[in-house]
Amino acid sequence: MICLHALELRAEGKGSPFDLSAYFDPTRTYPAGDISPELSGKIHGRKNSYQVPEEGVDPKSLWGFSELDPKGEKLEALLAGHFAVVIFNKSANRLYLARYNGEKIELLKSYHALYGKLPGDKHIEGDLRTPEGVYYFNSFAKYPQISKKLGEMAIGLNYPNPIDKLDGKTGYDILLHATFEDGRLQRNFDSEGCVVTQNKNVEEISHFVQLGVTPMLIYGALKPEHLEPQKFEGLPSFFNKWVAAWNDKNLESYMESYSQNRFVAPDGKKWSDWKTYKGFLNRRYKWINVKARDVRYFIHPKYTMVLFKQDYRSDKYHSVGTKFLYVENKNGKYQIVSEDFSRVVDSPVLVKQAISENVKRKPSEESRL
Questions:
Q1: In CATH, which of 2.60.40.350, 3.40.50.300, 3.40.50.1970, 2.40.440.10 is domain 20-227?
Q2: What is the pLDDT of residues 289-338, one digit of tens each?
C-alpha cells in the first residue's frame, strides 16, 4: 500500500536537535571515519565541503564513472522503454539517474548530494547515518505538506526493508529530498540520514520514479561490477530453479532456495512455517503456474535483490504484481532470506502523474494505489 499525502514525513527523523555527546568518549582517540566532520570540519581526509567542477570536465575523471547524458538533455529518450534506477555513491557524494539495459546498468546523469553527518551504514534510529542497501520508492509529498527543511519535494524509501528488519535496524522516514537552504549543498555531510540534493534535481528524477517499483541503491563505494549484474554467475540459474520448483509444486526443491536460519516471510513466518504453508497451498490447488517477466538483478555488497513482474495463477487464485526477492550468498550458495511484494506492475503511477492529480485534492487527503 502506497500513501501519497498522508505520510507523516518528519524533518529527517524526529526533527529535533540530536545530542551527539552520547556517541563520543572524550577519553579515546577515534579511528578514521568515526567522527562527524560536522563537529570538526575536516578529519582524516573526509572533507565536508563541495566545489562545483569546471564546465566540460569528464565525469569519469572526477568520480570514476562515465555518464551517457551528463547535461540531462536526452533523459526522456534514453529512458523510453527502459527501467529507471536511482543510485547513490556515498564515497563520491554522487546521485545517479540510470537505466537497466539488458545485462548492465547504465549511468545517465549525476547530481551532487549530501548525506548523513556520521559515516557508515545506518543501524539505529537517530544515529545520523544513511542506510546502505537496495530500496524502492514507496511515497512522496510536496511542500507545504512536508516540513520546509525537506525542500520542494521528498520521495520516501522503504527503509527499513526486510533485510534491515532481520538485522534489527531501526529508524524511519529515510528520504531523497530537496532543500531550500542556500549553501547547504556546499557541505557533503549534513543530514540526519536522508540523501539531499537541489530542488530541481529531485524534480527531474521524480519524472522517472514509479512508486512501489523504482529502486534506489545506496553504496558506501560504488564499483563497476555493481553495474554488471549478469556477470555474477549462478544468479539466473538459481532464480530459474526456484521458479521451476514453484511451478512443479516440488516443495523440497523449492524450500532449498530459502535460508533455514535467516528466512522470514513478509507476514513473519519463518522457514518451517513457510514450508508448512506452501505445502498446504500445493495440496489445495490442482495446479500452479507462475510466470516471471522482466527479471532484474541488483547487486550490493550486503545482498542481492531480484525484482520481477510476477503473474501467479492457480485453479482458485490469481495475483499480479512486482516481487522483490532478497538473496544472500553464503559460501558460494545463494539463498532467499526474505521477500516483498507490490501490487503495482504494468501501469505504475509516476510521481509526476501523482503530483498532477493531487493538485486537485485537499492537502490532508490520502491517496492509495
A1: 2.40.440.10
A2: 999 999 999 999 999 999 999 999 999 999 999 999 999 999 889 999 99
CB contact at 8 A, 90 and 33: no
pLDDT at 54: 66
The phi, psi pair for 282, rounded to 5°, reads -60, -35
Letter for the amino acid at 164? Answer: D
Cα distance between residue 184 and residue 174, in whole Å: 18
Q: Which of 309, 304, 316 is nearest to 345 (CA)?
A: 309
- Stated length of the chain: 369
Structure confidence at residue 346 (pLDDT) = 53
Contacts of 106 (CB under 8 A, 6+ apart): 68, 98, 99, 227
The fold of the 229-342 domain, in CATH, is Nuclear Transport Factor 2; Chain: A, (3.10.450)
Evaluate if residue 368 carries a pLDDT over 60.
no
